[in-house]
Amino acid sequence: MRHSTLFLLLTSSFSSAFYLPGVAPTSYEEEQIVPLYVNHLTPGLTEHDDQLHSVFSYDYYHPAFHFCQPVGGSKDVRESLGSIVFGDRIRTSPFELLMAKNETCKAVCEEVVFDARSAKFTNRRIAQGYYINWLVDGLPAAESRTERFTGERYYNPGFTLGTISDEGELELNNHFDIFIDYHPIWLPSTKKYRVIGVRVQPESRATSKVLDNGVVDCGENGPPFLVLNEETDTPVTWTYSVYWQEVPTAWATRWDKYLHVYDPKIHWFSLINSAVFVVFLVGMVSVILLRALRKDIARYNRLDSVRLDDLDGTSAAVEDGIQEDSGWKLVHGDVFRCPKSPLLLSILLGNGTQIFVMTGVTVAFALLGLLSPANRGFLATTILILYTLFGFVGGYVSARTYKSFGGEAWKRCIFLTPILIPGMVFGIFFLLNIFVWAKGSSGAVPFSTMLALVLIWFVISVPLSVAGSWVGFKQKAIEGRTKTNQIPRQIPRATGSLRPIPSLFLTGILPFGAIFVELYFIMTSLWTNKIYYMFGFLFLCYGLMIITTAATAILLVYFLLCAEDYRWQWRAFAGAGMTGGYVFLNALIFWATRMTFGGLTGAVLYVGYSALVGFLVFILTGTIGFFASWAFVHRIYGSIKVD
Ligand SMILES: *[C@@H]1O[C@H](CO)[C@@H](O)[C@H](O)[C@H]1NC(C)=O
């Protein structure tokens, strides 16, 4: 019974129509103003080559675009912290949309003039395929598109700033046909209306202008395309029309059209592909490993009893043809020896656990439909909050591991756990932000937000982590299952794929295989600012990744121990963490195949953020690999008798 419920839950998230309403609906009276907010301009995949040409976003009111401001200047619209960190810059606009009232051809403001410089700037943005992002009643203004494979229609958030004609001319879209779907509802006394969908069809019109008598000419009859002259001034009039259409769709399902982002069939196919592969491999590996282990353990314990029977000196074991102890049992006196740099490893493990718990809970929340896209920035805010709160877990794990390693610099451990890794991440984030800021892009996180992040970090996260560490140090250390010898064993030279570098690359590739497909979709939606909503798939991928990481790390450790190399701790961590390296590598390949942008800043930004993500994945998967191996080592050495 439980299983079928879970399955139902899963499938409903897969069909991507399942979410709890995040915000209360707003109902408008007839002809009441429905505010239109503007967000930043973002780069998108251009139609002619399907490539991404930039990684920067620009403020809507960047002076070079000459978009009209409302009378008295535009104002910021309140946003959540997460939404700001992830790039949203929402502001008010002068557009007037009156509920359920069709209006054709209105001017947004008086004529504006593009000088040569802003013409150049804007033309460049058109060539790079920039998108305009508007919000009406919390819904993004979208372009209507047809799915290539299924022929289904869906809404793609944002619409283009301009078009590149077949002759290579850059046409600026200066007229907007706004189509709004609405739905009437009957409240006790009055009839009210709700916004269901927003679609914009932008057009380029050369001769639109405001006539002397105040009448607006939207240029439908003139020559169609407006091209900004890069030598002289070009006058431009921004115009728009609004069409309201009554639709039967209920408010609760208004996001469905937007969330159909990718064809789920392709997704299913590739996911099942990798799942079958992974399950098969992991299954095979564990069967072989289990059999080998069982044989080993039986042999070791038999050897012990043989030797106990034979106390007169000549070894019966050798006479019996049974070999002397070999393989992983030999290192029982060293396997629980403290690794090199136990402090650093503990700190990494603490932070890794923090990230692990955070991502796990976030993905679970998302799967349950709690992270509705209707709540802008809610996902990002949730991540920030969860990360902050799980500082306690990070501190605890770091302290407890460090104590189990026999570490003594506990003050340093408590202090560095919440400072070192978050500090590095924040530092890189800050540096990259300076680049963005210098570029004049709106992607730069405002200083006040930075300050808020630092405050949250020091006021909430650090104390929580310290408290966690304190509790961790109070607990008993986790003892090894065998006694560690005074003198370390000689380690034989490693050969073949057990050498450090090959083993690193081999261990990381499997978990990467499990997330590879999903990663592609996440990256596309991240860099093109599209809604990512395949949380069901994400959940499965996350699960697959954990299993493969754990399995490959255990396998690596088993081979290492059999080769009498007992330094498994760092090897397990780094080997499993190599998945992060592959994620970074994959980002570089994505750059080479899906992106064409020039300029040093863009490259620095892209590589910087990719490296940051790769590093976080490194810590995450490394931690998974380490703890899986830890459990494994405790288990196998706990099941043999050592005299
Ligand atoms: C507005 O115009 C559209 C398209 O021309 C039409 O379908 C719709 O009925 C009109 N709505 C109102 C409220 O007049």
UniProtKB/TrEMBL annotation:
Q: Name one GO cellular component term.
A: fungal-type vacuole membrane
Query: Which InterPro entries is this protein grouped with?
Result: EMP70 (IPR004240)
Q: Where in the cell does this protein reside?
A: Membrane
Domain of life, per UniProt, equals Eukaryota
- Keyword Signal assigned to the entry: answer is yes
Q: Answer yes or no on keyword Signal.
A: yes
How is this protein positioned relative to the membrane?
A: Multi-pass membrane protein
Q: What is this protein called?
A: Transmembrane 9 superfamily member
